[in-house]
Design a protein that fits this description.
This protein is α/β, with parallel strands linked by helices. It has 3 domains: 309 residues, TIM Barrel (Alpha-Beta Barrel), CATH 3.20.20.80; 64 residues, no CATH class; 79 residues, no CATH class. 22% of the residues lie in helices and 21% in strands. The protein contains 12 helices and 22 strands. A hairpin with a 4-residue loop joins strand 14 and strand 15. Helix 8 packs parallel to helix 9. The longest helix has 20 residues. It is globular, with a radius of gyration of 27 Å. The structure holds 2-acetamido-2-deoxy-beta-D-glucopyranose (NAG) (6 copies). One 2-acetamido-2-deoxy-beta-D-glucopyranose binds next to loops. Pfam families: GHD, Glyco_hydro_35. Its EC number is 3.2.1.23. It is an enzyme of class 3 (hydrolase). It catalyses: Hydrolysis of terminal non-reducing beta-D-galactose residues in beta-D-galactosides.
Length: 501
């Protein structure tokens, strides 16, 4: 288990364009980039990509027993897709301890994710090990394999300030360390404005078309490494949906503003098996993604995005080689145009940013009706092939039936816990010890026992006033027993973590 966590990678695979690109004869010119896009085997590319945490996938995709990353990358290659290797080692990913193994916490003098020698030692060792595994099987595009991009760290900027200069040092160190691995493919750092050259700083977010401040050098492309297709759920959360229309708007907007790669997070949801989850996160992980927990299409999201990708691909030449301009069409309406002067290559995005009101605009002598919060895509600057607000893809519903097969040999097992007395406790301390530390992250349960001797003077005189047991701890939930008798339970939630019992 520990070894597995250590090698958990977030693998993203790209769809569509990629299928075409890799069906030709393989060249291994590797991957570079310019101010427009990634340059794969010598050619600029538009890339559509979807995140998948393969260990959370349905059983026919679950390499149980070995969690075989190598096998997974091979499969991606066989399917004619590319991969982005986001190797962390801290990956967040709503996973125990963000993917870091428990033992790392016990390393002498370690401080995670900052300019700290023990942490850097282990981070480098891990990165080297993964890169070697990938190189041994010739998985990098520079070796003829499917990996076209790699990521070090993850959204570090959310904690960077707490570490002051040491945080800044660490970012530089991490970027340089990764580049030093010589993979022949570019590295990215997401949400990291100060990513050191030649590492590309990329956007994570819901509306990168409007929120991304852009690459930190003109010779780096605009890439979107995480865009929520919904939101992961925590126990007690209301249902979370992100409408297909809204998602399509954001992606179209990003591509209308120099974007050339978008990765959906998640594209395929999954299941948190066993204890593989972070606190309060539900077992069902990202079921609202275009491919649900079971790998089935969720429509219209899946179809509406497919149609969007087709429309964007029709604009490929203009997007990758055209020069950009903007034409104001109204207060909140604009056209974003990619055009090659002196050629017929031209693509336009007609955008209505008003959230409530539709508008009719005139573009190059023709009238266009733009629903509220919508983008129309015109791959020849004349013909509308796609409108983010106009969902033509069918809605589907999912039904569940009991599976005879799955329920055939089911065996239920019951076990009985012995309620320990103080004499049974292995560790005796004056204050409660940390659970994570005591169990080495092998269990979420731990008995804490204390003994309080009361004599008659301690007990209230009136029988309607009961003694109060107060437990101060940072655990998530508690079952309480007094004199071997169950007296009740209490728990916190992700917003209000503490509770009083
Ligand atoms: C840990 O830090 C202390 C105090 O800075 C130092 O004395 C000790 O040698 C360090 N231990 C290791 C294993 O680096
Ligand atoms: C897109 O890139 C061009 C240069 O290639 C630049 O002039 C323009 O400002 C960029 N647009 C946005 C929205 O970043
Ligand atoms: C579009 O509207 C949003 C909020 O309604 C605003 O934050 C954003 O700046 C607007 N973008 C443009 C290009 O007008
Ligand atoms: C728990 O943490 C303490 C202090 O950091 C350490 O000395 C001890 O070895 C840890 N316990 C286990 C079981 O690892
Ligand atoms: C946790 O790890 C420590 C040190 O490796 C070991 O002594 C202890 O027995 C382990 N405890 C559990 C509950 O696995
Ligand atoms: C993972 C990630 O970047 N998530 C972002 C998705 O978009 C929302 C809204 O912009 C952000 O709050 C999340 O951080």
């Amino acid at each position: 288990m520990t070894i597995y966590r250590q090698t958990l990678l977030l693998v993203l695979f790209s769809l569509w364009v990629v299928l075409v690109a890799s069906h030709g004869k393989k060249k291994n010119m590797g991957v570079t980039y310019d101010g427009r896009s990634l340059v794969v085997n010598g050619k600029r590319e538009l890339l559509f990509s979807g995140s998948n945490h393969y260990p959370s996938s349905t059983p026919d995709f679950n390499f149980e027993g070995n969690y075989d990353l190598v096998k997974f990358i091979k499969l991606i290659d066989e399917m004619g897709m590319y991969a982005t290797l986001r190797l962390g080692p801290f990956i967040q990913a709503e996973w125990n301890f963000g993917g870091l193994p428990y033992w790392l916490k016990e390393v002498n003098n370690i401080t995670f994710r900052t300019d700290n020698a023990p942490f850097k030692y282990h981070m480098k060792k891990f990165t080297k090990m993964i890169i070697k595994k990938m190189k041994d099987d010739k998985f990098f595009a520079s070796q003829g394999g499917p990996i076209i991009l790699a990521q070090i760290e993850n959204e570090y900027n959310s904690i960077q300030r707490a570490f002051k200069e040491s945080g800044t040092e660490y970012v530089q160190w991490a970027g340089n360390m990764a580049v030093g691995m010589k993979t022949g493919v570019p590295w990215v750092m997401c949400k990291q404005k100060d990513a050191p050259d030649p590492v590309i700083n990329t956007c994570n977010g819901r509306n990168c078309g409007d929120t991304f401040t852009g690459p930190n050098r003109p010779n780096k492309p605009s890439l979107w490494t995480e865009n929520w297709t919904a939101q992961f759920k925590r126990f007690g959360d209301p249902p979370s949906m992100r409408a297909a229309k809204d998602l399509a708007y954001s992606v179209a907007r990003f591509f209308s503003k120099n974007g050339t790669l978008a990765n959906y997070y998640m594209y395929h949801g999954g299941t948190n098996f066993g204890r593989t989850s972070s606190s309060f996160v539900t077992t069902r992980y990202y079921d609202e993604a275009p491919l649900d927990e079971f790998g089935m299409q969720k429509d219209p999201k899946w179809g509406h995005l497919r149609d969007l990708h087709v429309a964007l691909r029709l604009c490929k030449k203009a997007l990758l080689w055209g020069s950009t301009s903007v034409e104001k069409l109204g207060d909140e309406q604009e056209a974003r145009i990619y055009q090659n002067p002196g050629s017929h290559v031209c693509a336009a995005f007609l955008c209505n940013n008003a959230t409530r009101t539709p508008a009719t605009v005139t573009f190059r002598g023709k009238e266009y009706y733009l629903p509220q919060h919508s983008i129309r895509i015109l791959p020849d600057c004349k013909t509308v092939v796609y409108n983010t607000q106009n969902v033509v893809s069918q809605h589907n519903v999912r039904n569940f039936r009991k599976s005879k097969n799955a329920n055939k040999d089911r065996k239920w097992v019951m076990s009985r816990d012995v309620i320990p007395t103080i004499g049974d406790c292995h560790v005796k301390e004056q204050s409660t010890m940390e659970l994570f530390n005591q169990t080495n992250d092998t269990s979420d349960y731990l008995w804490y026992t204390t003994r309080v001797d009361l004599d008659d003077d301690d007990l209230p005189m009136r029988i309607d006033i009961l003694p109060v047991l107060q437990v101060h701890n940072l655990g998530h939930s508690m079952h309480a027993f007094v004199n071997g008798e169950y007296i009740g339970w209490a728990h916190g939630n992700h917003i209000e973590k503490t509770f009083t019992f």
